[in-house]
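Quick one: Isopenicillin N synthase-like Fe(2+) 2OG dioxygenase domain-containing protein from Prunus persica, structure tokens please.
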Amino acid sequence: MAGNVLPSLGRVKLTDLAPAEGLPSDSYKLSVSTLSQSLAQYSAAIIQFPVSDGALLRSGLDSARLYFHQKASYPAADMVNTNDPRDWCKTSGYYADPQLWLETYDYRPGLTPLEPNNTMEFPPAGLPDIFSLLGKAARDILDAISFYLNLRSSPFTKVLDNVPLRNGEISSSVLSVCCHTRPSFQGAQHHNFTTQEDGQLVMFSDHEHQVDKSLISLVKSDKAGLHIKDFQGRWVLVDEDLGPQEAIVYPGLALYQATAGYVNPALQRTETTNMQSNLFGRCSLAFKLMPKSMTSLSCSEMRDAGHGVEAQFQLPVPVDDFMQRSHPTDQLFNRQSFQSFNFHATQEGSMKPLLRRRKNDSRSKPLPPSKRLRLEAQRVLKERVQDIADKKGIKLRFCNLKECENHILTLDSPCANIRMEIGWPHGVPFVHPHDLPNKAKIGFLEAYEPGWTATHEMELSLTEPGQASQHSVNCN
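--- reply ---
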């Protein structure tokens, strides 16, 4: 699966992503593969809703156009967005950002919008139904990503809102009805124009790009204009060829944190063309599946599945602190995306000269504690696995590392029964313990030998800072 290359954004039917009891169907596995590969290559994918749901989305966009069209040409002072990070889960009702020519109506169940000057205002129609539709779709997509990462079913339930909300609860997730560059909206005093290679006039925001802090974002617009940076650093217009019941999905920063960096967030920006020729501007429906503020983002599920978790993701992060913190985007993409989260032979091969050089050096000086720890892990792991196989009467026949990267993604692979019978961790190639990357060795040993980490905790603490950082590089 990791070797596939999609020529364009993957299209996935939402009905094929709905989880069901029992073994996964072929359509489910194919849809999960297409979705995951598209997110890995383009940081986005196209979701196809049923025809009846497409009608609801279109009516929501029609209502949005009429709602913003009747708004005043310049927003009141108390309606201007201040971009205060403390309000990340408190926004509701209408507000505007004159600098970006952007108007937004946020619908957040459980929170009644405050109406300025006690005036009666009718919101866009159908928001509760659209919120329910997109919220269910976002959760199904999140579960599909979890399936691809070999996580247990619904691993993010603890950080999501209750379904339905309890009395007195306010939704962390939000449905934003947006309008870019409405011609009658005269609030923008400063805007930034650039020219594309073909000479077409385009307006981008003052910030080159934005990153949602959501787990999953779903966007349905009435006109093309959403650009997302792909894996190769190119800006791709992702909503240029959408059908009437199709929407764009892309991951956010919260999912990046919760998956230890295996799922990269989407860098996105909005383009608006021919502003004066359109009466209503560019309208869109944007749903953001957000974690609850009183929870923490933890990578324990990734660790339990056998994935390596780097030092920066080891400790749980309170959601409220995470949402208020700034996240420089140049520091986000420092590891592989989750299309290739498995251990690659090419990477192992690239480390061989370094490992060989260290082996020669070790003859003249004692091994550092981190190296001794890994060798001990390898030795105990080999003995423990062989012991389990002998007791169960299983004849071990390990796979080739490169081939087994595909084996662990399928349910009918040659090593599937052996892996299941001896309790081989999910997401770890079924190879000889000597061939396992260091983090997989130690993580696997912790699963087979409870208390092993505590026993060697003091030895770990003796590792020099320089050795620890080099150990992190080797593990990756």
